[in-house]
């Protein structure tokens, strides 16, 4: 997996590169210190995953994420935000801009490497505290109507949605039900369609709004 590191701190970029290059399946193909440079290198290097900081000079991470996510030539590239901020307006902005997930900068190296692999595999990944804050934020917003589409779900799809709402990965869901990853992905696709959800983050919200995933504090 080809990774582009974007952060305005040179020491952190170097440290992240050492952590990622230590894994045989990860290769750092470049690094950028600004949002503008990140966009240029994304188009030039076509990485699989971009580790994106938020606060940077000359085009922040939100602007860069929006540009990258909106570029048809970079449709296969996914952005994983690596931030020191837990659920502030910057992280919400990155979510709207098209980021695939959010991880805090104090994450363990193994957690970071796993997050990149899962992001590359098409999963939306959130640090537990960020996921909790995300759910709490959306549940405090006024709702025009109850979550629609839950009545269309099969019993197994409800079970899968419950685990998605608790932050489990596809691998963890497959192990829980002793089914294949392919079957899990099929269920996820069906959930996205029936609930008219854009991504996995919206499935998490649907699970909580539908009252089938417990409380946000349990995430």
UniProtKB/TrEMBL annotation:
Q: Is Cell membrane among the key words of this record?
A: no
Q: Which GO terms describe its molecular function?
A: DNA binding
* Cleaved signal peptide residues: none
4-aspartylphosphate carried by residues: 53
Q: Which residues form the Response regulatory domain?
A: 2-120
Q: Which UniProt keywords apply?
A: DNA-binding, Phosphoprotein, Transcription, Transcription regulation
InterPro entries documented for this protein: CheY-like_superfamily (IPR011006), NreC/VraR/RcsB-like_REC (IPR058245), Sig_transdc_resp-reg_C-effctor (IPR016032), Sig_transdc_resp-reg_receiver (IPR001789), Tscrpt_reg_LuxR_C (IPR000792), WalR-like (IPR039420)
**GO biological process: one example:** phosphorelay signal transduction system
Q: Where is the HTH luxR-type domain?
A: 146-211
Q: PANTHER family, alphabetically?
A: TRANSCRIPTIONAL REGULATORY PROTEIN NARL-RELATED, TWO-COMPONENT RESPONSE REGULATOR
Q: What is this protein called?
A: LuxR family transcriptional regulator
What species is this protein from? Leucobacter komagatae
